[in-house]
Amino acid sequence: MHFQPSAAISRVDAASLRPPGGLAPAGAISLAQGEPDFPTPEPVIAALCQAVRGGYTRYGDMNGDPELRAAIAELVSLIAGEQYSERSVLVSHGAAAITAAILATVNPGDRVILPEPTYSLSLDAVQLAGGQPVFVPTRPDRHLDPGPLEAELSGARMVVLCNPVNPTGAVFSAAELDWLGQRLAGTGRLAGWLCGRRARGHRSDPARAPDDEQRGQRSRAAGGAGCDQRRPRPGRADARGLSGTPGLRGRPDRRDGLPRSHPAGRRVLQLRPLRKRAAGRRDHREAAGRGGVVRSGPEFGPSGEGHIRLSFATSMDNLTEGLDRIERVLSGL
To answer: Which helix H or strand E contains 103, and what residues bound it?
Structure first.
């Protein structure tokens, strides 16, 4: 007898455009994932070995390590200007946190607002819960557009923000988040967002961001002394260095094929290839078959049609060669 998936899995399968798991083909250059291209730093290896030798090999607190949660609460309190305790902190990883939050909140038929483009797993989680996803376009600079968003908020159960935005790298401003918070205050509706390393707390306010010394103090408190791999290293790609890269040639008004706004919070970029036929839903598979792996733009929402998403968390050599391969694929379409 053939396996019959549940209705929930069938909903996800019908709506999701996320690629199946698996490694990049042998010899391919993957620009699909924002994964570090450098070896695991020695302080991390040493800390892991020390933890294993110290007996940290059994079940721990399911909410996360208490010391880590206390350090996170201290840092969040500093950024937000409000006091939080470790009881307000839950440590998880992205996929589990997104899915758990949505499944715990959304009932079948509930409307869930997704300003897009946005992280594609959010759509899958809404479908899994039986909710009704409502995509709301953002402005051309990929920031929130109050008009369309206001029009869809009535009756919605949840607003899901990805901040900094994957796939565009945009970071929502304090004014944007304050407006949304005030709009939802007292309504019983929930707003949630993912906070990446460049997000400025719950308000995304650079003035409230900790300086390097404060970050270092909290890194040391969490056991990360001497390990800071966040700064670009020589030869690493930066968005401002991509404009002369082969594979991104285009009209001068598009900065050689790049969007006008640089990604502020992630090493990812959403591009519209400047070709006779723009990149579509299957073109990322064609690129993978020829040695350059990217993500399909429509995976991240309707406005992604005609785009590809790539990560430039890699060396300039890999980026140049990967974009050359992708350019050859798109030129032949």
So the answer is: helix 94-105
Paired sense of beta strands 111-116 and 156-163, if any = parallel
H or E stretch including 218? helix 212-221
Per-residue pLDDT tens digits for 146-171: 999 999 998 899 999 988 888 888 89
Number of C-beta neighbours around residue 15 at 10 A = 14
Do the strands 190-195 and 29-30 form a parallel or antiparallel pair, or are they unpaired?
unpaired
Rounded distance between C-alpha atoms, residue 287 and residue 131, angstroms = 33
Residue 190 lies in a domain: yes
pTM of the model: 0.72
Residue 308 in 3-state DSSP?
strand
Question: What's the number of CA atoms in the CB half-sphere (13 Å) around residue 219?
Answer: 17
Q: What is the CATH number of the domain that holds 254?
A: 3.90.1150.10
d(CA 270, CA 281): 14
> 165 and 248: one domain?
no
Question: What are the tens digits of pLDDT across the range 114-142?
Answer: 999 999 999 999 999 999 999 999 998 88
Position of tokens 């790298």? 169
For residue 47, is it within any domain? no
Cβ distance 119 to 162 under 8 Å? yes
Residue 147 domain-assigned?
A: yes
Asked if residue 12 belongs to a domain, the reply is yes
Distances in whole angstroms, Cα of residue 229 to Cα of each of 57, 197, 263, 264, 267: 26, 12, 19, 17, 14
Structural domain total, the chain: 2
